[in-house]
């Protein structure tokens, strides 16, 4: 076993939702491992600032991941003009909290489009090219909510459960074309998505007691899992959901 298995030199990685938070950390990490990185989000100003953090040679591909046609067109044009996307990290996502009995239908629909339709939209658009080349790595960002329910977050939990199952379906359907599709299920990380929870001391107290690691995760702690699943180091891993959660999912 050689450390070279983790080397991503010569690979190009598209990370959706990489203008901030987990996506930006993963983009930085993939670049450090040798990949050229393509950033995605909807806000070009945020993407430009993120590209400065990732560093030289970083490309931007702004589009809305909820729009199937826009994703297809952006990816087809990028592949034609700039070359192959070898690694796709489906990271873009959002969260709404609230009691299920009062949850607005439009918010439920928006969660579905952003958290699960996006994985289909971008996954299919990129996989069509990967299939033509007979290789490719897809890493979907799931959640501990893929396995566990928490109060007041049922619609998000539903979308992340679906991300886990779509990952297994992608792995099953596309292995014969040389693709590998896996997921990372993060625990609780301090990002803009969790701003309200981070600001709530009662939540942090609960989290510190409930998580065996006794703390919030740092986004950099997701990078190793992503490099592993994006690289030759995981050549026989397919349809797996890798929990990076300080142990919360396995402890009562
Ligand atoms: P953030 O809210 O910090 O970042 C979300 C990113 O997604 C932004 O770059 C945002 O950019 C982008 N995005 C949102 N909607 C769209 C869209 N329709 N099209 C394109 N880009 C979009 O979230 P996190 O970094 O915390 O989360 C990233 C992923 O990790 C999500 O899937 C989330 O569910 C998952 N996750 C997060 C956890 C955590 O503890 N933070 C735990 C478990 C899972 P812009 O708005 O500019 O378009």
Automatic annotation (TrEMBL):
Span-the-membrane segments of this chain are none
Output this protein's name: Gluconate 5-dehydrogenase
**Gene Ontology MF: a single term:** gluconate 5-dehydrogenase activity
Keyword annotations for this protein, in alphabetical order, are: Oxidoreductase
Pfam families per record? adh_short_C2
Q: What family does this chain come from, according to its entry?
A: Belongs to the short-chain dehydrogenases/reductases (SDR) family.
PANTHER family named in the record: 2-DEHYDRO-3-DEOXY-D-GLUCONATE 5-DEHYDROGENASE, SHORT-CHAIN DEHYDROGENASES/REDUCTASES FAMILY MEMBER
Class of the enzyme per the UniProt entry, highest EC level: oxidoreductase
**EC numbers on record:** 1.1.1.69
Q: Does the keyword Signal apply?
A: no
């Amino acid at each position: 076993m050689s450390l070279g298995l983790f080397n991503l030199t010569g690979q190009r990685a598209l990370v959706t939702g990489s203008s901030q938070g987990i996506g930006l950390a993963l983009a930085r990490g993939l670049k450090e491992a040798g990949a050229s990185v393509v950033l995605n989000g909807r806000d070009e100003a945020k993407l430009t600032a993120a590209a400065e953090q990732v560093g030289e040679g970083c490309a931007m591909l702004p589009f809305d991941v909820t729009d199937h046609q826009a994703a297809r067109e952006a990816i087809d044009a990028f592949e034609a003009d700039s070359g192959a996307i070898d690694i796709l990290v489906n990271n873009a996502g959002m969260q709404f909290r609230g009691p299920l009995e009062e949850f607005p239908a439009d918010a439920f629909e928006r969660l579905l489009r952003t958290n699960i339709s996006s994985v289909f939209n971008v996954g299919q658009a990129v996989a069509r090219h990967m299939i033509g080349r007979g290789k490719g790595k897809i890493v979907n960002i799931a959640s501990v909510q893929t396995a566990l329910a928490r109060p007041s977050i049922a619609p998000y939990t539903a979308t992340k459960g679906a991300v886990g199952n779509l990952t297994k379906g992608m792995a099953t359907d596309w292995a014969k074309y040389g693709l590998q599709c896996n997921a990372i299920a993060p625990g609780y990380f301090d990002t803009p998505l969790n701003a309200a929870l981070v600001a709530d001391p009662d939540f942090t107290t609960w989290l510190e007691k409930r998580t065996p690691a006794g703390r919030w995760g740092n986004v950099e702690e997701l990078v190793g899992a992503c490099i592993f699943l994006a690289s030759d180091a995981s050549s026989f891993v397919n349809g797996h959901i890798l929990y990076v959660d300080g142990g919360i999912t396995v402890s009562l």
